[in-house]
Specification:
The chain is of the alpha/beta class. Helices cover about 40% and strands about 20% of the residues. The protein is built from nine helices and ten strands.
Length: about 260
């Protein structure tokens, strides 16, 4: 019995199970007199965050079920596939395609704080997305992530005819993520979407800290002339959620002029 349990544990660890259940277990005596344990039924659950390193081992498992009641769109599916191929974390949920406040947030904890603050200020119905990037993603990762968010955020059609929108590029103070490297990808995507950002009347608010944050924020400031929309940049000396209040005021001021 102990050998069966030990070998099961090895499989549990190597394949990143989060739960493994055998019920019932049937002890049998083999023809040579040795004894074995046979599981008559089994179920298990895998950690979907380990897909990037176990894709070849998890034969036949192409995707995990989505959150109950949520119908994924192509952008969410694309980020989910990208997330499964990298050791970083990339998450995206579209809440409102007609939203006016859009988030590019570094860190799972920060994403919750920014989302809660937007809702606490009474702007939950204008929040376009929920998501985060973290785990020291490459500039290619952040470029593809940002491009995907901007593709939805800059739509100007019957789905989202609203102008006067805001993009919040926020996060706490990173421990090991190279802020400059991640901002390279973000800036590349922003410059490519400069015309749609202008057409939708975007204002951009940035607050970030961490390794190389000074160089990263300077890169954002230098980008403003090329992107053609207002860009407001803050470092870790500014409270993390301050940019949410500034964005809310921007939307209120825009609506008051209409």
């Amino acid at each position: 019995m102990w050998k069966y349990v030990l070998e099961s544990y090895v499989v549990f660890e190597e394949l990143d199970f989060t739960m493994m259940e055998f019920n019932p277990l049937c002890p049998i005596v083999n023809a040579d007199g040795s004894k074995s344990i046979i599981p008559l039924d089994m179920r298990g659950e895998l950690d979907d965050q380990a897909a990037f390193k176990n894709a070849k081992k998890w034969v036949g498992i192409d995707e995990f079920p989505r959150v109950f009641g949520h119908k994924c769109n192509p952008e969410e599916d694309f980020i989910a596939r990208l997330d499964s191929q990298t050791g970083a974390s990339l998450k995206l949920t579209i809440l409102n395609p007609a939203g006016r406040i859009w988030l590019l947030v570094a860190g799972g904890g920060a994403s919750v704080i920014y989302t809660d603050t937007v809702c606490d200020m009474g702007f939950s119905e204008t929040l376009g997305n929920y998501g985060e990037y973290s785990g020291n993603p490459t500039d290619s990762d952040t470029y593809q992530y940002t491009s995907t968010v901007l593709k939805v955020a800059t739509r100007l059609d019957e789905v989202n005819p609203n102008k006067g929108r805001c993009l919040l590029i926020g996060g706490g103070v990173a421990n090991f993520t190279d802020v400059k490297a991640t901002f390279k990808g973000i800036i590349k995507a922003l410059l490519e979407y400069s015309k749609p950002l202008q057409d939708a009347g975007f204002s951009i608010y940035v607050r970030r800290g961490g390794p190389n944050f000074e160089a990263a924020l300077q890169m954002i400031k230098d980008m403003e002339r090329g992107i053609g929309v207002p860009v407001h940049v803050f470092g870790p000396d500014t409270h993390m959620t301050r940019i949410v209040h500034l964005a809310a005021n921007t939307i209120k001021e825009y609506d008051a002029k209409q």
